[in-house]
Amino acid sequence: MGVDLRFVATGAKRVVDSRPFYVQMMVTDDCNLRCAYCDEYNAGSPLPPLSELMARVDKLDALGALVYDLLGGEPLLHPGVAELVGRVKSKRGGSNLCTIITNGFLLTRDNIRALNDAGLDFMQVSVDSVAPTAASQKSLKTVMPRLRLLAEEAKFTVEVQTVLCESTADSYDEFRSLMKDLPFSFGFSVQHGPGGRIAIQGKKYLDLLGRYGVFEGVNFYGRHIEEMLQGDFSRPWKCLAGFKFLYVNAAGEVQWCGQQRAEKRPLAALAPADLRTNDRHKPCEPGCSLGCVRLVSHTLGQPVKTFGASVRLLLAAVLPKKKE
Fold it and tell me: Which of 265, 221, 279, 270 is nearest to 14 (CA)?
């Protein structure tokens, strides 16, 4: 596990320096599924060579990144993904964090063990509903055998993450009940539309938020969600995407995030001075519901106000999970 005193000390430096903290890195644009709400895949895209992905990790480490999400598309489509995790964990003596975000369909005993050996810290499995819907094939009916395999084999922490939308909200209580015996943590993100703007509103979503809460570490984001679910986008905040949070697409270009694609710079040529130009408010801030961008922006942008949430987030990373 990469959360140690060195990680904490370096993370604290990211509050005041000009280096990135958190990176989402596309392993491939290709995906084995076709979820209606997702626009972050391009079916049939060629896989980036592993050597190029390794070089991107080297560059990101040199810039100062500490937390890596490897995603797609579907990252498990890339045969070198375990080696890529190993490359991440070879940096800073393993004093960093690496997560894979997957739909879980391609999990096997062998690749779970390979990820164990590579030192993976976290896996986020996207599962949306009890049974497949028109919007998403990611259901317990299809993925439960892989989740049980993870429960048997995984040495890394597993979180099951749901996109909360019209086709998943009504069955979410049942969904959580069916998974109560699995030794995982659970969370949800709210559906967004183009540009990252929240795409759902209404009392049933507020009720679910009240019952289950939002994931730790994002300070005021819970209250932002409550307001946005009621159509109020007035609360101010400053997005640190392109500065403390980087999104590296499959072509090796750095975007603000997965939804803002107009500004792209080659990662290979990126320097801290380039990152500082993005330390500014962005026109897409009102209504943004992108959780990872929010987490970084609130935690590093308001370190005093978020101190308690940051401590709880760190403790959650190092303490063993309990079954619900």
Answer: 279
Q: Each residue of 107-141: pLDDT tens digit?
A: 999 999 999 999 999 999 999 899 988 878 899 99
Torsion, Cα 288 23 33 218, to 10 degrees, reads: -40
Nearest one of 15, 22, 72, 45 to 294, comparing CA atoms: 22
Average pLDDT, the chain: 90
d(CA 147, CA 160): 9
Lookup result for tokens 């308690």 = 308
Please state, in angstroms and rounded to a whole number, the distance separating the CA atoms of residues 202 and 105: 32
| CA distance to 55, 271, 272, 313, per residue, from 62 (Å) | 11, 10, 10, 25
DSSP type of residue 123: E
- Structural domains of the chain, with CATH: 5-318 (3.20.20.70)
